[in-house]
Fold this protein.
Amino acid sequence: MNTQMLMETAKAMVANDKGLLAMDESNPTCNKRFAALGIPQTEEARRAYRELIVTTPGLAESINGAILCDETIWQCQDDGTPFIKVLINAGIIPGIKVDLGVKDMAGHPGEKITEGLDGLRERLKKYAHIGARFAKWRAVITIGTGIPSRGCIEANANALARYAALCQKVGLVPIVEPEVLMDGGHTMEQCFEVTERVLRTVFNQLYNQRVMPEGMILKPNMVLPGLTCPKQETVEEVADATVKCLLRAVPAAVPGITFLSGGQSGELASARLNAMNVRFKSRSPWALAFSFARAIQQPALAIWKGEAMNVTAAQQALCHRARCNAAACRGEYEAAMEGV
Ligand code: 5MM
């Protein structure tokens, strides 16, 4: 394991108050987003959309790294240049989503387990060989009646830790993504309790599997009330609860925390991340940054609609959301930035 290289890559992923762009939707997820906007669900449409993203002028001013999926990492832009090379030339570190998706967990009604450990070490070597510098694996935890169960949390945490250990062995920085879903009517307090329990279990497992915390990135959910909970806390209350929960469970040796957006609107995700940095940046042990997919991409996708003539406007929208989130990493985002 090249510990120095892992530490340098992890630091670079959250350096200079910038974050990560998640563009790693699996084909079914990408197709779902396309279908909602009437965009054809073809390999060529997905390639054209990803070309729009990676060729966005100025993206590297706000984004340190981009997470690709397996289909995208082997694709090229129109002139034949591989996307991975386009990103590296732009100064953006390429990474790869390596889990094989979530499946119903046997014996655990309503709960999910992430698959993809079989054959992972060979796949990781191939990705590292073509230039990927980090990887990502997502586990999904649902809050509901009697769930999450201990069995579900422990199995997912163990898979995350085994994935992370394999990544570090081949020199890839693992992004560890345990997502407590926003769906449901649970309170913010319930989300806090579950998120703390999940993170403590994940870091125990990471320790057991000898994962070096300095050479990884955590991608958690923010601590939020469920989408249908009648009480929706303020931006500041969410920021306080999220950082309090992370301070309890995440070692200070981890260089960066890059949040997922999980279905929040772009504006709310930026505002909440901003509030965390306004209130805690000077005393936070880790960089507090972003690794959003929908909260960066959604406006651009809605403008593009699969039409070549909309590419420039869509790229401007993408760049705008990326800039808003970089401003949030500095604690300088304000609502007035929207609508510009
Ligand atoms: C939670 O999803 C991750 C962050 O995206 P949002 O900011 O939109 O919540 C995202 O990286 C996700 O893991 C990928 O989109 C891949 O998901 P699928 O389900 O397509 O594998």
